[in-house]
């Protein structure tokens, strides 16, 4: 995406929250508050079972729909899994490698790479989450960890990744759901490092988001950083007024 403006993205990761009815109402509230924001790529990531009804709510709008995970095979005996071939009928983005999947469910760097490959194969934009744990942060290993995670993802691709075919979300694990946000300086430093790292390998980097306790209070200063192209928002994405404030902050970038 070098040379072209990077449209800020704000993606709301609802995680395992809301019933289907609550999710439909939340999507309608996001649509009402955010659909006029043309300077931001607004995305909601509801649970799988919400995708079809939320898709109907968002139909014809600028608010985009994504899933929170995907399996790497297209079909077969993989009970409980959902493939990119299935998602491609319902949404246009998918999150892979979220730290809750890596750390609670044991997903590896290589598996995250296979998930991105499946997404890309089916025309989905993959949002790849990377980030270090608190102990890795304290040990000064942040760059090494995100480089390792990204290199594993890149190694798993058999087709070329284009800058607009995926998105990276830098999410320090110690900042997710903790209320402890990285400072704008810390987030900027890592997002800039990620951009350079990927540009060196691919020639062009995708948009790089920051995630980790983004709120109405801190969004503007995070998004003002030159290498932060928006946010991946968890808890605050469940509150439509707060989410809309965060989206508006990205629109003033
Ligand atoms: C997330 O789930 O990706 C996230 C960043 O969560 P939170 O905003 O709640 O920290």
- Helix/strand order: EHEHEHEHHEHHEHEHEH
At the third CATH level, what is the topology name?
TIM Barrel
Give the overall shape, derived from the CA principal axes: globular
The largest sheet, given as strand count, sense and whether it forms a barrel, is:
8 strands, parallel, barrel
Distinct ligands: phosphoenolpyruvate
Q: Name the strands of the widest sheet in spatial order.
A: 1-2-3-4-5-6-7-8
Report helical residue fraction: 25-40%
Task: Determine the N-to-C terminus distance.
Answer: 17 Å
Mean pLDDT: 96
Given the structure, what is the number of helices? Answer: 10
Structural class: alpha/beta
The value of Rg in angstroms is: 17 Å
CATH-level-4 superfamily name:
Aldolase class I
- Given as residue ranges, the uncertain stretches (5+ residues, pLDDT < 50) are none
CATH architecture type? Alpha-Beta Barrel
Number of strands: 8
The amount of beta strand, in percent, is 15-25%
CATH class: Alpha Beta
Overall tally of domains: 1
Overview of the molecule:
The chain is α/β, with parallel strands linked by helices. It has one domain: TIM Barrel (Alpha-Beta Barrel). 40% of the residues lie in helices and 15% in strands. The protein has 10 helices and 8 strands. The protein has helices spanning 20-34, 51-58, 84-87, 99-104, 109-121, 134-138, 142-155, 184-202, 219-223, 240-251; strands at 9-13, 41-45, 64-67, 93-96, 125-130, 166-170, 207-211, 230-233. It has an 8-stranded parallel barrel, surrounded by 5 helices. Helix 1 links the parallel strand 1 (9-13) and strand 2 (41-45). Helix 1 runs parallel beside helix 2 (51-58). The longest helix has 19 residues, at 184-202. The protein is globular. It starts with 8 loop residues before the first strand and ends with a helix. Bound molecules: phosphoenolpyruvate. Phosphoenolpyruvate (PEP) binds next to strand 8.
């Amino acid at each position: 995406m070098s040379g072209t403006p990077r449209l800020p993205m704000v993606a709301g990761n609802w995680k395992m929250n809301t019933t289907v009815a609550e999710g439909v109402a939340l999507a309608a509230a996001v649509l009402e508050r955010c659909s006029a924001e043309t300077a931001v790529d607004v995305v909601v990531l509801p649970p799988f079972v919400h995708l079809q009804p939320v898709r109907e709510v968002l139909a014809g709008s600028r608010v985009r729909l994504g899933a929170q995970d995907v399996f790497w095979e297209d079909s077969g005996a993989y009970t409980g899994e959902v493939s990119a071939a299935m998602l491609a009928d319902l949404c246009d983005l998918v999150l892979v490698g979220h730290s809750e999947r890596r750390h609670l469910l044991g997903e590896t760097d290589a598996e995250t790479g296979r998930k991105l490959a499946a997404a890309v194969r089916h025309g989905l934009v993959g949002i790849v989450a990377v980030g270090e744990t608190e102990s890795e942060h304290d040990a000064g290993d942040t760059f090494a960890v995100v480089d390792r995670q990204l290199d594993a993802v890149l190694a798993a691709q058999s087709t070329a990744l284009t800058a607009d075919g995926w998105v990276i979300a830098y999410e320090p694990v110690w900042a997710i759901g903790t209320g402890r946000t990285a400072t704008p300086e810390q987030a900027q430093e890592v997002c800039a490092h990620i951009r350079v790292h990927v540009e060196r390998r691919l020639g062009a980097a995708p948009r790089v988001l920051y995630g980790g306790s983004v709120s109405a209070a801190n969004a503007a200063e995070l998004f003002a950083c030159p290498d932060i192209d928006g946010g991946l928002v968890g808890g605050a994405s469940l509150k439509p007024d707060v989410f809309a404030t965060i989206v508006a902050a990205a629109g003033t970038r």
